[in-house]
Amino acid sequence: MEAQLGRREQRKRETRQHIADSAMALFVVNGFDNVTVTEIAEHAGVSRMTVFNYFPRKEDIFFDRIEDGYELSTRAIRDRRPGESIAAAARRLITELAEARHPLTGLIPGGPHFWNLVSASPALKARVREAADEWQSLLARLIAEETGAADDDPAPLILAAELVAMYRLLHRAAIRWIRSGRTVDEVAPDYLRLIDRAFDAIESGIGPYGVVT
User: For each of the chain's 213 residues, which pLDDT tens digit applies?
Assistant: First the structure.
């Protein structure tokens, strides 16, 4: 039964990725706003209902890795190591993702073109802002749960806002550097140094907050 569930989950992930890849191929050629869900379904060889089963909105197809980012950050904070603060766990996660050239860091050759598509679409720009707010709220709730913070304690909200702002700073820096003509490997050392500078600033203010004993 477990093996069957594992195969089913794998097929679902493959279908989801296939839909996202098919949609992105259309977005790159035609622009986000000029592609319909019907066209995405036809290009992927699935029904419109199947597309909506995996992605409630067209914007979510474009940003198909948002949920991965939420899951990774949640897991890093919940599974932090003995002696590791919440900020230190977040630093470790983004450092590992940067070293692996994970797409969520922006350290990919096609990153600038991806964000050019975003800049050309009001709907996508609105979804970016919405996603940042969603992620910040998720982190604030998680940090409050992990630390047992009182309802009127502002620390979880402050740290969540700092972590989201730090991520946006890093992502924008990566895109700016790659747009200037530098390769991903040339950009990576500066990116890693910026991680340390950003987290040094965060940790100097928040201190050993949420350390696992």
Answer: 545 557 888 898 899 999 999 999 999 999 999 999 999 999 999 999 999 999 999 999 999 999 899 999 999 999 999 999 999 999 999 999 999 999 999 999 988 888 899 999 999 999 999 999 999 999 999 999 999 999 999 999 999 999 999 999 999 999 999 999 999 999 999 999 999 999 999 999 888 898 987
**Domains assigned to the chain:** 2-61 (1.10.10.60), 66-206 (1.10.357)
Instruction: Say how far residue 47 (Cα) sits from the centre of its chain.
Output: 27
Sequential DSSP letters for 27-62? HHHH-GGG--HHHHHHHHTS-HHHHHHH-SSHHHHH
CA gap 71, 105 in Å, rounded: 15
**Six-digit token string for 72:** 């990774």
For the chain, how many residues are written? 213
C-alpha 120/C-alpha 171 separation (Å) is 18
Q: Which of 95, 117, 91 is nearest to 105 (CA)?
A: 95
> 68, 47 in Cβ contact below 8 A?
no
Containing 12, the helix (H) or strand (E) segment is helix 2-30
Computed on alpha carbons and rounded to an integer, the radius of gyration of the chain in Å comes to 19
Enter the pTM of the model: 0.88
What is the identity of the amino acid at 40?
A: I
Using CA atoms, how far apart are residues 82 and 86, in angstroms rounded to an integer?
11
